[in-house]
Specification:
Layout (H helix, E strand, L loop, with lengths): L15 H4 L3 H12 L14 E3 L5 E3 L5 E2 L14 H13 L5 H8 L6 H12 L12 E8 L9 E10 L2
Antiparallel strand pairs: 1-2, 2-3, 4-5
Length: about 160
């Protein structure tokens, strides 16, 4: 089940804090997405497990502990899943969210964090096995650089528009 198919999915920015008022709301949603048929131990594929106080899954047969965030962009993050979900919500609902725009909206402590988060999230949005662009294409023109005393800005082709058949 996708998060969008969830009846509790926030439809606007006012409803987002209501849906994700606690950290556990994000954990439960991520578990449902990651293990839609229930938890399966990544070490032994066992289904018998319990949840520890630290929100880890403890496999009954192999005693392996697994986190819902292990192997995801959220792994080792000191920020809450609620905050990650908010940034993802912003990315899905705003065209061209910039790092500075994210800092302005989400009040990141430092500017350096915002581009790292956006890069991580954008990297997992790329479809696996996608065909890379190749061949001739049509491009738009742009001026790169600024005017310097005694020199002119160079005209360069920079934006890929569409491939030619």
């Amino acid at each position: 089940m996708s998060v969008r198919g969830n009846p509790g999915y926030p439809k606007n920015s006012e409803k987002f804090p209501d849906r994700f008022s606690k950290e556990d709301a994000g954990v439960d949603d991520l578990e449902q997405i990651r293990w839609p048929k229930g938890f399966r131990c990544p070490a032994c594929s066992g289904e018998s497990a319990w949840r520890t106080e630290r929100k880890l899954w403890h496999g009954q047969s192999c005693r392996h502990q697994a986190s819902v965030t292990a192997g995801t962009v959220f792994e080792d993050s000191r920020k809450s899943l609620r905050r990650w979900f908010h940034v993802m919500w912003l990315m899905a609902h705003q065209t061209g969210l910039s790092a500075q725009g994210l800092c302005d909206v989400d009040e990141f402590g430092s500017y350096q964090t915002a581009p790292v988060w956006l890069h991580k999230l954008r990297s997992v949005m790329i479809p696996q096995g996608r065909e890379r662009l190749h061949g001739r294409g049509e491009v738009d023109e742009a001026y790169i650089g600024g005017k310097r005393e005694g020199s002119r800005a160079k005209k360069s082709e920079v934006a890929f528009i569409k491939p030619n058949p």
